[in-house]
Amino acid sequence: MELADRVVGFLLSFISLSIFTYYTFWVIILPFVDSDNFIHKYFLPQEYAILIPVCAGVVLLCLLCMFVGFVMLKSKKKKA
């Protein structure tokens, strides 16, 4: 199992680093590049740079609250 854990860890690290690099380039560097440059066609409009993380955060918070609620309900049933 140790090799599988390493592969999954490497894959998750690679995906996280790729997303972080893409987002950093999109938000920090791209506004300083001319808008007629070819590189702009590889990125979404700047409005999505805020909208996507906010929506992902709201979804994550909702899922976390649902998980906590289910755990609380389950623990209440065990006591009764």
UniProtKB/TrEMBL annotation:
TM regions (residue ranges): 7-29, 49-73
Gene Ontology MF terms: enzyme regulator activity
Presence of the UniProt keyword tRNA processing in the record: no
Biological process per Gene Ontology, one example term: dolichol-linked oligosaccharide biosynthetic process
Signal peptide coordinates: none
UniProt keyword annotation of Chaperone present: no
Pathway: Protein modification; protein glycosylation
Keyword vocabulary terms for this entry: Endoplasmic reticulum, Membrane, Transmembrane, Transmembrane helix
InterPro entries the record matches: DPM2
Topological category with respect to the lipid bilayer: Multi-pass membrane protein
Subcellular location, principal: endoplasmic reticulum
GO cellular component: dolichol-phosphate-mannose synthase complex; endoplasmic reticulum; endoplasmic reticulum membrane
Listed PANTHER family: DOLICHOL PHOSPHATE-MANNOSE BIOSYNTHESIS REGULATORY PROTEIN
Family of the protein in this entry: Belongs to the DPM2 family.
Assembly description: Component of the dolichol-phosphate mannose (DPM) synthase complex.
Protein's name according to its UniProt entry: Dolichol phosphate-mannose biosynthesis regulatory protein
Originating species: Theobroma cacao
